[in-house]
Specification:
It is found in: Membrane. GO terms for molecular function: dipeptide transmembrane transporter activity. One of its GO terms (cellular component) is plasma membrane. InterPro entries: MFS_trans_sf, POT_fam. The protein is mostly helical and about 625 residues long. The protein has one domain (about 70-315, about 375-600): Up-down Bundle (Growth Hormone, Chain: A), CATH 1.20.1250.20. Helices cover about 60% and strands about 0% of the residues. Strand 1 (about 30-35) and strand 2 (about 40) form a beta hairpin. The protein is globular. The chain starts with about 30 loop residues before the first strand and ends with a helix.
Length: about 625
């Protein structure tokens, strides 16, 4: 039976949605609140595949929501498992990536063992590991190509997760591809292969395959983690102290993302081991050990298969988004698209179309009003994502800038590429301080750090880092025996490698304010059925600096290494003031963004119609 012109549930709540009245909420089972002000589910574990065990309770009034302190829910074991997978994946990713620059740039060290390790004793004190001897430009191009692909391919991975495979299956596919890549990566690092002079071809093939693996895993893992949150709407709970608090979905996702990012950096700290492996033993060991760590992933995925909540793929959701824009352009024209505004967006809402046209063809207009609102808020968040590349350029340097700086400094037997590990170390230390110290303190004092405030703090820290970089690089040029051509000089500057420590620590803390906030925005502001793609767009901000580094690899070399630091110092300083002004609307909290019925497509007009007529046939 056809019901193509039936209008059903076309007008839904605006975003952010207002919760159900308190009298419609069933009383919650006895809850437990731990000493860290995290609400737990009374000893229960999320161990179902079709539904999340939700935290229930009275929903706060607007006044209560605005005045009561907001606390996150604790993490379930399934959420912790997702963080463990990320730890293993990032350990393998950064473990091998940290070796790429030396593997490609430097030749086999004189007096070394032929596997890339430095010479024994005093001869190797200021040597760096090397293998292919292709130079700094080739090393930068290789590294930036890998990073670019690893953050562009998630667009494909996000689409596949949202429309065809679902998040869990997409992660499994990526894990399988990554296992193959890690096996292949060891081959070009074998001494006999390096000695042939043809190791670069199998090396770059393995690198590209690894980028594809990361591209399928990254856009799905964090959203799958946040899907496990038991808090879908703000809920009133009472602490042991008697204080009434709001267990908040956005605060919970923020906490999840902080811990997720913490695990990323615990994993990336594994690059310390690979730095010493390449220096003391050779690149074959540096590439083998991350692969062994990687094999933890399929075991955890197997454990979580029947325990995780897995939202099903939504088929045409990306096509629906395209059709929404087509409808707005058809009704308003391209010229009005730049102005935007309520009239532009409302023109694609079925309720408005029904009012204007008298009817709605649900074969052509098969979304609801809320989906249009969700797309609108996603684009607002994407505006922030476009500024993040500026922070990342400051964080990592343009191209191989920081690696070139370290190669010109006095090493004292320390691997030149080990300094980058102060970045994850700083994050590992700072994350608990922010999670359990600064953020709760600000909440208690009544001055919570809003998303755009956090972004500003992070960019200001990047400004400080760039100023320090400019000072150190300028000092290297002045003291190097080769002057402004210090990178490839046989003798090094007396400037000690330790001066790079603040260069890595300061922006690392900034990442906790900038990157974690962007991940939080990507999940909370994305359409319920399209979180993988929006999260992938957020990740794409990492690809832009890689592309810039690739394009400028022949320019950002001696004697021009100081200039980019001054430019980025100015750019990050300006951006720091854009967030609390231009993007201040993103400070408004969003209460509902991941209801399971909506993620599963059960609130779509077609699904509601099918259920309605199915119930009628049963009667």
């Amino acid at each position: 039976m056809s019901h193509s012109n039936t209008i059903s549930d076309l007008e839904s709540a605006p975003v952010p949605a207002v919760g159900l009245p308190a009298h419609e909420i069933h009383p919650a089972p006895v809850e437990r609140v731990n000493e860290k002000d995290e609400v737990t589910l009374g000893g229960h574990e999320v161990a179902v595949t079709s539904a999340v065990q939700l935290l229930e309770g009275d929903e706060p009034t607007d006044e209560e929501y605005n005045t009561l302190r907001k606390v996150p829910a604790a993490m379930s074991w399934t959420a912790i498992a997702m963080c463990t997978i990320e730890l293993a994946e990032r350990a393998s990713y950064y473990g091998v990536q940290g070796c790429f620059a030396n593997f490609v740039r430097g030749p086999l060290p004189v007096g070394g063992n032929g596997a890339g390790a430095v010479a024994k004793g005093a001869a190797g004190v200021n040597q760096s590991a090397g293998a292919l001897g292709m130079g700094s430009t080739a090393a930068t191009a290789t590294g930036q190509t890998f990073t670019f692909l690893a953050y562009v391919i998630p667009i494909l991975g996000g689409i596949m997760a949202d429309t065809r495979w679902g998040r869990f299956k997409t992660i499994c596919v990526g894990t399988l591809v990554g296992a193959v890549a890690h096996v292949l990566l060891v081959i070009p690092a074998i001494p006999s292969v390096i000695s042939t002079g043809h190791a670069y071809a199998p090396f770059i093939i393995a690198v590209i395959i690894l980028a594809f693996a990361s591209g399928f895993i990254k856009p799905s893992l964090a959203p799958l983690l946040c899907d496990q949150s038991p808090v879908k709407r703000p809920t009133i709970q009472v602490l042991k102290s008697g204080e009434r608090v709001v267990v908040d979905p956005q605060a919970t996702v923020g906490r999840y993302m902080l811990i997720f990012y913490w695990c990323i950096n615990i994993g990336s700290f594994f690059a310390v081991a690979t730095s010493y492996s390449e220096r003391l033993v050779g690149f074959w060991l540096a590439y083998l050990t991350p692969g062994i760590i990687y094999m933890l992933m399929p075991l955890v995925l197997l454990w979580g298969y029947k325990r995780l909540y897995k939202a099903p793929p939504q088929g045409s959701v990306v096509w629906e988004t395209i059709l929404v824009f087509r409808e707005m352009i058809r009704r308003n024209g391209l010229r009005k698209m730049l102005k935007g505004g309520d009239a532009w967006w409302n023109s694609a809402k079925p309720s408005v179309i029904a009012e204007q046209d008298g009817t709605v063809d649900t074969q052509r207009i098969f979304w609801d009003d809320q989906f249009v609102d969700e797309i609108r808020q996603s684009l607002a968040a994407c505006g922030v994502f476009f500024l993040i590349p500026i922070f990342l350029l400051a964080d990592n340097g343009i191209g191989n800038q920081l690696n070139d700086m370290s190669a010109a400094m006095t090493l004292n037997s320390i691997p030149n590429d080990i300094m980058s590990n102060f970045n994850p170390l700083a994050i590992i230390v700072a994350t608990p301080i922010l999670t359990y110290g600064l953020y709760p303190l600000c909440e208690r004092l009544g001055f919570p750090l809003r998303p755009m405030t956090r972004m500003s703090i992070g960019f200001l820290l990047a400004t400080v880092e760039m100023i320090i970089c400019a000072i150190v690089q300028n000092r290297i040029y002045k003291t190097s025996p080769c002057g402004s051509y210090a990178t490839d000089c046989e003798e090094v500057s007396p400037v000690n490698l330790a001066w790079q420590i603040p260069i890595y620590i300061i922006p690392a803390v900034g990442e906790l304010f900038v990157m974690v906030t962007s991940y939080e925005l990507a999940y909370t502001r994305a359409p319920a059925r399209m979180k993988g793609l929006v999260y992938a767009i957020c990740l794409f901000s990492n690809a832009i600096p890689a592309a810039i580094g690739l394009a400028l690899s022949k320019v950002i070399t001696d004697p021009n290494l100081v200039i980019p630091y001054y430019v980025l110092a100015g750019a990050t300083f300006v951006c720091a003031f854009l967030f609390p002004t231009v993007f201040r609307h993103l400070n408004e909290p969003i209460k509902v963004f991941a209801e399971t019925d909506r993620m599963e497509g059960k609130e779509q007009p077609k699904a509601i119609q099918e259920k309605l007529y199915g119930d009628e046939e049963k009667q």
